[in-house]
Design brief:
The complex is a heterodimer of chains A (131) and B (88). Chain A is mainly α and 131 residues long. Chain A has seven helices and no strands. The radius of gyration of chain A is 17 Å and the shape is globular. Chain B is mainly alpha-helical and 88 residues long. Chain B has three helices and no strands. The chains are: A mainly alpha (131), B mainly alpha (88).
Chain lengths: 131, 88
């Protein structure tokens, strides 16, 4: 909480450090083998997978170069990861007019609504077909 | 209405999307909706409402992430207890 309310400039390094630690953990630890890896509350409580379930297995497979395996764990991440990446790059690396232009597309109401609809429909579809 | 427009508040969209992906709680959706309102409200010069929406987006994301973390801690305690019980 205190870290997140710090100034923008400090936040960047906190997030980068956090990201490196998470990726390192996911590279060395296979979420399928260790039961102490974080679990999805939604899945444990309801028994259904949520839209983000499988992202640890997906990242682990991606870091080891198994792209097809990664896609099988969570199809939705094919769309969500690049979207998140564009948002992050736009916020922290791009400046001025370019940033405003990208934001006008990526943060447009329709894009956001599309993301929410895709997330919800993916959550429903994956539970029907057990993907 | 103020004469000088304040700086555009951060819409906290990254945090909201991160919440939907990693903390698996529908609260992330609330946060995304709030975050998407920030830019529109700012464009319509409703600066106070925009700042409020920005704060709400952050609040709901942090509640989602916080609940996720609390859940992990409970899970690990229960799991540890189960392992300990099976060992002894």
């Amino acid at each position: 909480m205190a870290l997140l309310s710090l100034h923008h400039f400090h936040n960047r390094y906190v997030f980068v450090l956090f990201g490196i630690i998470v990726f390192a953990c996911l590279y060395f630890l296979d979420p399928l083998q260790y039961t102490f890896m974080p679990k999805c509350p939604f899945k444990l409580l309801t028994g259904y997978s949520c839209g983000g379930c499988g992202f640890q297995r997906c990242v682990h497979a991606l870091l080891h170069g198994n792209f097809i395996q990664a896609i099988k764990f969570n199809l939705f991440l094919c769309y969500a990861f690049p979207y998140l990446l564009v948002l992050i790059i736009n916020k922290y690396l791009l400046k001025g007019k370019t940033s405003a232009f990208v934001a006008s597309i990526v943060e447009h109401k329709i894009s956001v609504l599309f993301y929410v609809c895709a997330y919800l429909s993916w959550t429903i579809i994956r539970n029907i077909y057990n993907i | 209405m103020e004469q000088n427009a304040p700086l555009k508040p951060d819409n906290n969209m990254i945090l909201a999307i991160f919440t939907t992906l990693c903390c698996c709680l529908p609260l992330g959706i609330v946060a995304i909706i709030k975050a998407s309102n920030v830019n529109n409200l700012y464009m319509m010069k409703q600066y106070d409402a925009a700042i409020q929406a920005s704060a709400d987006a952050k609040k709901w994301s942090l509640i989602g992430i916080g609940l996720g973390v609390v859940f992990q801690v409970i899970y690990i305690i229960f799991y540890g207890a189960a392992v300990f019980a099976s060992l002894s």
